[in-house]
Amino acid sequence: MASKPLSSPPSWAAVPNATLSGGIVAQIRTAVLNREIVAGQFLGSEAALSEQFGVSRMAARDALRTLEGLGIVEIRMGARGGVWVAQGNPDRLADALAIHLKLIGITSGEVFDAQMAIEEMAARLAAERRDDTDLEHLRAVLAELSALKNELDRFADASMRFHEAIVRASHSRILLAQFHALSFVLEPVLRPNLTSASAVRIVRHHKMLLEAIEAGNGVEAARLMQERLAYQRARTLSQEADPASRAG
Question: What are the start-end ranges of the E strands in 31-124?
Answer without folding.
Answer: 42-44, 73-76, 82-85
